[in-house]
Design a protein that fits this description.
The protein has 550 residues and is an alpha/beta fold. It is built from 20 helices and 20 strands. The strands form five sheets. A six-stranded mixed β-sheet has the order 5-6-7-3-8-9, sandwiched between helices. Helix 17 links the parallel strand 16 and strand 17. The protein is globular. The protein starts with a strand and ends with a strand.
């Protein structure tokens, strides 16, 4: 039975006037697991919102062509009726959280459907246990970590028991443990017969689970294949990450027409291979960032979030802060950026205490791009966002306009300068927040999930730009990331946070090796680490590997 059927569908937004979906033809059978991929702005979210009826019922747009979901046209029914069978989990969990307490939020949708109290209690517990949040059922929703909020949004939809489950970047804020829990949950739900459609940039992790890969490019469906064939045709052509093992296989056997998507498949297809690893010296020298005995307690909380953090980061280094959701990473960044003051202990950047500086002094010393860009976007245009930071740094006149234009061009958002940042995609808002922070030329740049919501092509271009200006300005860069591919590719040092403390410090290779003994850290090494390990080597990035047939 076809649960989703689109035939020659066009979607044109009215404000601003823009064609977002072109000639889209797609058929999804009951029980299928389908992965949607494509560049930021390729039309994935438009396709999702057309299937669930949000377009045109809530987001006004012109929709032409045949759209059928479970035998009904979602355009002709109120969204709440379509939602009886089609549940959607969006990219930003805060937009789907309504109650102050966790279990109340899961019950919210059931109450609106007049589900009897006894059944409601069963469903709430079932959904929270599946999402790994039952132990936090009485917890305030606003005190959950970003990853916990994402799991709560999924639990609230699961409690409604939809026939079709649509997810838009559901693991973008989750650590490795949370990601595995969610993907494991989705696999289990799919095995129970639920049709799943997922838009996800963590392609490497989800490929082995799905039945099909559907790629979009400039609003068109340009690929619809089984995972191995999709990789063989070149996902990178559409701005999508390909598995590291597929990249390595292409280097080892460039003429091969079949490509592995798991480490096991790579090792089976490449017997008799030898590898060499290029080793790099970790950074050393004077520390520009120092934290000594830092304790921090949020008002109203009995237990401190940070429990004695000691940290030194060498000048000019690129370091990553990793660890599970709720371990204190973002809180530590708030202290380094001077947003909070330590309850006790000392934080210094270049010998200064950031919380004691004026705004103009602080933006030139330390820049901080938040995990959620919406927390730092407050103007009516993208231009005004960038100019606000520049003005705070003392830039005026012609330099203000030229610097704004230049940094927007460097990050590929020059065409968005007169748009409202609040009407952009999550990935575009991320780039706007980066542009605003970078415009002040800070000595230390803190990036909390810098490429969240970006496709792999845009993410790599953004990181290359950041590394280029880092070298040009001799900046120190601190990445907070759950993306271990990114950690391995760019970091010179990695600090693991766990339970409010620094649990380990080392090179990416050393941290990945130690993380195998500490599942609780939420660090899952990338594929290349396991390939190198098979050959008795340590490697954190394909950039450091040289392959040769025996």
């Amino acid at each position: 039975m076809k649960v989703v059927e689109l035939n020659n569908v066009f979607v044109r937004y009215i404000q601003p006037y823009r064609l977002a979906l072109r000639e889209a033809t797609l058929s999804i059978e009951e029980g299928e697991f389908v992965l949607l991929v494509g560049r930021t702005g390729s039309g994935k979210s438009t396709l999702i919102n057309t299937i669930n009826g949000v377009i045109p019922n809530i987001i006004k747009a012109e929709v032409r062509g045949k759209v059928s979901v479970l035998g009904r046209d979602p355009r002709s029914a109120p969204v709440y009726k379509t939602a009886l069978d089609v549940g959607t989990v969006y990219q930003v969990p805060e937009s789907q959280i309504f109650a102050l307490i966790v279990e109340d939020d899961v019950a919210f949708g059931l109450e609106n459907r007049a589900v009897p109290p006894d059944e409601m209690r069963v469903r709430v517990r079932e959904a929270l246990e599946l999402a790994g949040l039952w132990h936090k059922r009485s917890h305030p929703t606003f005190l959950l970590s970003g990853g916990e909020k994402q799991r709560l949004a999924i639990a609230a939809i699961l409690a409604l028991r939809p026939k079709v489950l649509i997810l838009d970047e559901p693991t973008s804020m989750l650590d490795a443990v949370g990601t595995e829990e969610v993907f494991g949950l989705l696999k289990k739900l799919n095995e129970q017969g639920i049709t799943i459609i997922i838009a996800e940039h963590k392609v490497e992790r989800v490929l082995p689970m799905v039945d099909r890969v559907v790629a979009l490019d400039e609003g068109r469906i340009v690929l619809d294949e089984e995972p191995h064939r999709a990789v063989a045709k070149g996902l990178h052509k559409f701005g999508v990450e390909e598995p590291q093992v597929a990249y390595l296989h292409r280097l080892a056997k460039p003429e091969d027409s079949s490509f592995p998507i798991t480490v096991e498949e790579f090792l089976e297809a490449n017997k008799g291979l030898s590898i060499e690893v290029v080793e790099e010296e970790p950074p050393s020298g004077e520390a520009i960032v120092k934290a000594s005995g830092v304790v921090f307690k949020y008002p109203g909380n009995e237990a401190p979030t940070l429990k004695g953090v000691d940290l030194e980061i060498p000048r000019g280094a690129v370091v990553s802060i990793v660890g599970p959701n709720g371990s204190g990473k973002s809180t530590l960044m708030y202290l380094l950026a001077g947003i909070y003051k330590p309850t006790s202990g000392v934080v210094e950047i270049a010998g200064k205490r950031p919380a004691e500086l004026s705004g103009s002094e602080r933006v030139r010393l330390v820049g901080y791009a938040f995990q959620d860009p919406d927390q730092m976007l407050m103007n009516t245009t993208v231009r005004a966002e960038i100019e606000m930071t520049l003005k705070l740094a003392g830039v005026r006149g012609r330099a203000l306009k030229s610097l704004t234009q230049q940094i927007a061009k460097d990050l590929g958002i020059e065409k968005l300068l007169d748009r409202s940042p609040h009407k952009l995609s999550v990935g575009q808002r991320r780039l706007v927040s980066l542009a605003a922070v970078l415009s002040a030329f800070p000595k230390v740049l803190i990036l909390d999930e810098p490429t969240r919501g970006l496709d792999r092509e845009t993410a790599e271009a953004t990181m290359k730009y950041l590394m280029d200006i880092k070298r040009g300005r001799e900046m120190t860069v601190i990445l907070v990331s759950h993306d271990m591919r990114q950690v391995g590719d760019y970091s010179q040092l990695v600090y693991v946070m766990y339970d409010g403390r620094i649990a380990y410090k080392g090179t990416p290779e050393e941290v990945f090796a130690e993380a195998e003994r500490h599942r609780e850290w939420g660090v899952e090494p990338p594929q290349v680490y396991y390939v190198a390990k098979h050959y008795g080597k340590l490697a954190a990035s394909p950039k450091k590997i040289r392959l040769a047939p025996v």
